[in-house]
Protein 1
Amino acid sequence: MTVRTPLYYVSGNLREMDSAMMDEIKSLAIYEYSLNPSVALSVSGSGGNLTSINDTRLQAGAASTSVTAFPNEATTAEPSTVTVSYQRITKTNASVSVTSDTGKTFPLFYTSGGNLRAMDATDFLDTFIFPSIDTLVLGTTTTSQGGTYFISTSTTVAGSTLVSATPIFLDTRADTSLYTADEIGETLDQPITINSYYLHKVDGSSVSLSQVPVYADVNNNIKQFSQAEIASLLSEYIRNAAASSTGGYQITYTIGTAGTGNIRGTGMANTILNGSGNYQTRFVNADDYRAQEFPDGTPVTTDTYYLRINKI
């Protein structure tokens, strides 16, 4: 990996940028990425292309009836598990073209021999783009990760934009308050939502460069980039690398209980009641004795799912 130190013009001289100036350019690359992420996540009711994740809950066993006496507990159906799969996130990689390297496309730097030379595309990637992607895929969700995604139980999170009001996952459990002996045979599945989980995109923060690098035009005249010109180059190259880099800097997302990469936002807990059944009876009349087992127990977490960001 070759990092070059670009030059800028000040008081009639060409000087090498310091690390703070170079960091500003990287921050500008991140901001440009935040405006139009090339690896985008969207939410729909179903049919996403990230891995499905499951919510499980107990439901009541089927009611038993007898014309002579209450069906005993050994013969009544046990509570069973309801499983609902969620696959609501779709990842889309954009196709991004970049300005070709003409030999004069990128900023100038001094060689070890003191000569002026233009960065090539590899230099530009190594100096500005790849370090910016390293920052984008961290586990934090500050403006330095603008344009990337995380999970929250809230629909409103400061510094981010809600992707969709449709939750990507619901943790539900049996609502034991809805099951009563007087209603046997009860509706089997009576859930309550414990938590809803939503996808957010981190907002970027605009950057004003204190110095802009210089380049050589087709006549070998030294000129300054405008901020808009360098921003355009940064946008093209960071979006292209994030979506399609073959050098280990393509941004990707996964969802599941385990995996590689940095966790983004809160974990999504799948909880369920751990009881073996609450046996209840109902006398309707001399020819109608009923029994049913309702969900019971205390909540336990069976799985916790995470959204992760990584580079590949």
Protein 2
Amino acid sequence: MSNSELKSLLNSVLGYGRNLKNNEVSHQCPFCNHRKKKLQINLMSQLWQCWVCGEKGRKLVSLFRKLKLSSSYFDKLSGILGERFEGTNNIAEKSTDVKLPIEFTTFLEGNKRDPEFRHALKYLTKTRGLTLNDIVKYNIGYCEKGPYRGMVIIPSYDKDGNLNFFTGRAYYPSATFKHKNPSVSKDIIGFELYINWDLPITIVEGAFDAIAIKRNAVPLFGKIISEKLKLRIFSEGVKEINIALDNDAKKDAIRISEYFINNGITVNFIEMNNSDPSEIGFSKMMDIIDKSEPLDFRKIMEYKLYDR
């Protein structure tokens, strides 16, 4: 067994670790996200334990299973340790089982004379500021009937072009429910199909925010960063991240920023000032991002002290 290969694999899964004595390493715990590296792993015995939340196990395969990693990680672990795990070939990345509504219609398929077509298109282009290129690129459609009636539908696709999520937004101002998401896992990478991991990425809350930024923006479809996105950032070796969450998610943004800084990634924290990227627009957002400065621990402490 190669300790260096095992360390490299653990770094890709958990973020950069710290070397300890007696063939042990420590990492930031993915279960409690404590700011210090309290997840301790023995490279020889494979025993692992977080000294904060108490999560523990006797083998690294149990850690990988708890993290619900894709089968490729189990294959790498198997190759390093020289042993096969029962059921490894069945441990595949879980499908979200998400399907677009059967009433979903793209604007390329819709009837331009239909009032629903015109109202939905007006909402996207006038209210949300999208271009026709944006609508085609992201395969945005709408629903005239069904559970998503009166909503535009914005799909999200994984790196292979498979649907992994979608969100619905009402295009009538009088609608009782403004947005609706399917009841599936959010442990996905939003808009993964359009991400170049060799360049800095920008993390935002919603689909319209990501579309407004246009370049390498990942929507969380909420305020919580998924485990799958964390792991992908580390495995791809991303060096720089922009955090641009809405002002009401400032505490979440600070927590995400601190997590990545602890793991050696440069984080630019974007002050939104009661606006969001979709309201600010592409040009101004690019200017704000370009002028942003890397966050450090002093600034993090200031945010924690003054933004309570």
Protein 3
Amino acid sequence: MTQWYYSDYEHNRHGPVGDADMAGLQAGGQLAPDTLVWREGLAQWQPWRSLAHEVAAPAAPAHAGFATAPADAPAGFAANPYAAAEPRSPYAPPRAPVQRMADVYLDGHVVHAGFWKRVAAYFIDAVIVGILGGMVGAAIGGIMGAGLGMAGSGDVGSMLAIQAVAQLASLVLTACYYGWFYASMQQATPGKMAIGIKVVRGDGQGLGFWRGFGRYFATILSGLILGIGFVMAAFTQRKQALHDMICDTVVVDRWAFTAYPDQQREELGTLTWVVLGLVGLLMAGLVLLAVGLAAAAGAR
């Protein structure tokens, strides 16, 4: 039986699978005409359109992964199949483009991300956004300060103006951060990618930039009501926070709405526990600091 290997839209290699499995993958939308595939006897990876006629009738899709080429594979079995498909000219478009977004599968079990996974992801993103915002604020302060001639002037009005512009720029930057990552192929910010979750529409479709952009401002509303909007994720049926309900979004496992729902995980995971532990230590430190400051003030 012929053994096939194929590459998905993220350039991950899978296989070996048989003829019937390949036919099933095609029927399920996993194999696009430009998807690169390889079998024994081929000099290099080739687009599926040129080899699809070789497989049998459709069957249930199978999936198996591998990280390196088989030991006895010929030279045509490239470690990166897309390296063979790239054009020689750096100015020409790729010859074998792949899907930008995964197909949505609605017939599998969906694991919704719980409150604690979301807390861990939010903490990671908050650190990243805080660093970016601080850099932008410092740049704006330096530029505007030099322009207004504030060096050593102590002009309160100018300082407030700089602060307002920096805060506005930071707000827009943060919204763009979330909007851009939610509209990306991973459908998740770096924090959510690290935890293994993503944000999609209620039907599994992608958000798009502007919905992700607006969702950030909806999270502000969730925080304004004493954080109750965030806590709702722990009690609602689909683990939706208030901003999810407003924007028609759900936070799910990274493998939800894909052809591999069995790879979803209900448990928190090691990284989530580590991040939550750091959050707990930080909160405990802040509480002790507040108690210490209060005690010092009372002793005066």
